[in-house]
Amino acid sequence: xxxxxxxxxxxxxxxxxxxxxxxxxxxxxxxxxxxxxxxxxxxxxxxxxxxxxxxxxxxxxxxxxxxxxxxxxxxxxxxxxxxxxxxxxxxxxxxxxxxxxxxxxxxxxxxxxxxxxxxxxxxxxxxxxxxxxxxxxxxxxxxxxxxxxxxxxxxxxxxxxxxxxxxxxxx
Length: 171
Fold this sequence. Notes:
single chain, alpha+beta, Signal recognition particle alu RNA binding heterodimer, srp9/1, three-stranded antiparallel sheet, 5 helices, 26% strand
């Protein structure tokens, strides 16, 4: 897991600890704190005794996904291209109006969303989600990357996908 998050999000280990035993230390054997910026940790991985993989996990109540935001569309597309070269492929890529997102499954089948705010402004994106009934538009990140490399601006890409999506809905 740590290696996957290192590859996907650039996480580094900031601290590892082992439980010393006793009820105050909780039910875990060890913990690893990782981050991809100056914050002391973004994710903590616990090694816990007696856990087993759940082969039917996707059908059980659980955390649906975690999301990490990129500053620009180029950052998101660059990460997509880098991960594709490493053999890490998304399970879904979508435009949701307020953001463009690429979804991956980590080794434990947790959904990890990488996204960029299409407005570049949190206030506008929040108003969008509060006051919109926008739908999910599936996108092809390879085509987005090719169009961006051919000179299309992030705004042009977004407008293109929105137009294609609404045309498909009308058909």
